[in-house]
Design a protein that fits this description.
Elements: H1 2-7, H2 13-26, E1 31-41, E2 44-56, E3 60-65, H3 72-85, E4 89-94, E5 101-104
Parallel strand pairs: 3-4
Antiparallel strand pairs: 1-2, 2-3, 4-5
Amino acid sequence: MEVHKILGKGHSEKVYGDALEYEFQKNQIPYDRELKYNIAYKEIILPSYYFADFVLFNEIILELKAITALTTSEIRQTLNYLAASQNKVGLLVNFGEDSFKYKRI
């Protein structure tokens, strides 16, 4: 919420990610940025993969958006990241609306 309060809407996801990274460091929140997840299919690993924007505390996927409104497409994307990572909790946050919006998945 701090990042949205200061930056408002209109920036790219990367800008919000940079600001969040600063806040995580300042507040000593353990995180990984753009963590790569392989996609398993039957007995192989596909050449495609996912990058989670952030992984907090080694278990929470944080997916950033800077769009007009969240849709089912972004929810499905976060669900795919959860499946690939085998994590249980995802947070989908959108900085593109007038007020800060998030959804726990």
